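Possible regression after last week's pipeline update?

I re-ran a chain I had predicted before the update to compare outputs. Posting the input and the new output here so someone can diff against the archived version. Not blocking, just want to make sure nothing changed silently.
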Amino acid sequence: MACPLPDWHYDDRRQVGLDFADAGEAASYDRRQGGDLTEDRALLQRLGLRPGERIADIGCGTGLLAAAAASLGARVTAIDISPAMLAVARRRLEAGGCREVDLMAAGFLDFDLPEGSLDLVTSKFALHHLPDLWKGVALSRIRRALRPGGRLFLRDVVFPGGPDDLPQVAGAWIDWMAANTGYERASVVTHIRDEHSTYRWIMEGLIREAGLELLEATYSEPVYADYLASRPQR
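New output (post-update):
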């Protein structure tokens, strides 16, 4: 049983921004996000995931990446705070015959995995639900869960430049989302105003300060970032 948290500790399960605990949001998530099982499988192959390795996907959503990892022979823990998302993921995994997958109702700050037990951690579009102070805590917990040499792949909304650039970047992202996804303007506005996406220079610093070695940082317009990091061997 998890130890009680102190009263100053952040509640990882609080509602922030869009409500992905809503069954309707969960059911339509893949359509709006453009999720693709083949793309996730290709990503995992590029990351070098091998049969028998242990992977955790934090903020697993509807289970697409977890299913892709299972199809490559990995042992998977799929983690999310949303019961609605986990229900969709469970149906997907059961329909695909994915038996090497454990579902865990948890977040970045309370997942329960042994130190050094994972070869790979992935997280796509989930860390921005935490304020920067707690992103650092989350990344440190991920480092401890990785074996030495284990890898973290992180994809998220990350703003380039600095505060003076924000109005232009925010406007460009709102326009891009309307043209390329199933999200309406109001949803993007909610993300910018109420969620906790951060700046490029802050995210890179948080990864390093958590004790991870930043191997790759790839940025694409208007506000997307991929990071590959590893737990040092020593």
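Follow-up from reviewer: compared with the archived run. The mean pLDDT is 91. Marking as no regression found.
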